[in-house]
Amino acid sequence: MHQEWEDRVAEAWGRLxxxxxxxxxxxxxxxxxxxxxxxxxxxxxxxxxxxxxxSTGHSDRAVPLYREALAGGLAGxxxxxxxxxxxxxxxxxxxxxxxxxxxxxxxDAAPEELGDAVRAFLALCxxxxxxxxxxxxxxxxxxxxxxxxxxxxxxNYARLLVDPEDSQAPRDRQGPPEx
Length: 179
What we know:
- It is built from 9 helices and no strands.
- With 179 residues, the protein is an all-alpha fold.
């Protein structure tokens, strides 16, 4: 792949909202044409096709393509995106446990920009399984670093949701007042 191809893919995705629901097949055709420029069976092409099906409301068509892309060695940022999107699609299809199994190992991956997305989609899968406290804890843990204040308190409360016996967590300390 080269940058010019990546730029065309990014441009196509940037225009997704230009395709109303009744023209979703046109968008998928654009992505299919771009994917067809890659070698047959390319994990990147499979991922882009899966994403196009997923983004146009067809999780059922996306799941096998995500699986094939990952089995074909899709790695890096796209590999992580594929696992997040696959987990979301599985959840949409009523299979949240598979989403949990897919995303839980991602919690231990090196931190990067998609870490919060992993936590968000894992939280949704957990909520669908009746494990709302765990899901809320993950969501708050992802949110805490982005708050202008109360980061430590929010992180501590998130931990207490799943480990109420944790005596190390200060319960009311909010930090110094803003100046």
